[in-house]
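Human:
I keep going back and forth on a fold encoding question. Comparing notes only helps if you start from a blank page. Show me how you would write down a chain together with its backbone fold. Write it directly below this note and I will take it from there.

Assistant:
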Amino acid sequence: MILKKLSICAIISTACLFSACSNETEETTTPETTTTETTVEKVVKEVEPKVEEKQEDLVTLHIKNGHLSKVILAINEKATDGYDKKLDDMAPPPGMETGYTALVSPDKQMYLYRDSRKPGKEIEWIFYGKVHKEKVITVSWDKEKLPADYSFDLVQGDKTIKMDQVDSIQIDKTDAIIITAVKK
């Protein structure tokens, strides 16, 4: 998502440079309405990513001491076991002096910021956390906002944690965490 926003900003900046769009507006008239748009608004509409139908973000995991501030677990009927161009968002590379945190695609080929899975009786995501210089990674979520139609478990090492009973975990060494949503 961050990369999409940055690329949209870059496209808008480029469009403004080439069209001198400080506050230019374009008026469109149809028999029913008259619409006035700035060049920037028009460019944003053209480049803004189209969200697939029935995309549902189930859980947002907030991250401290990772290179991302959050990752998103999502479901979509069109999701596959690999990277889905319009459904999944790739994670950017890590910054300097930071941990690395991302979701791992089902085929284990990509690191993702948003990972969409096909809805089902049981859905599984893999969260990867690489600790940098003993800076413990904290992963938190709002347990009050967990979807009521799923039960969420998180497996960290040999511990299984019910996500509706706690609101965070800590990762003190590089680890892969399994998150499972079971339809109630």
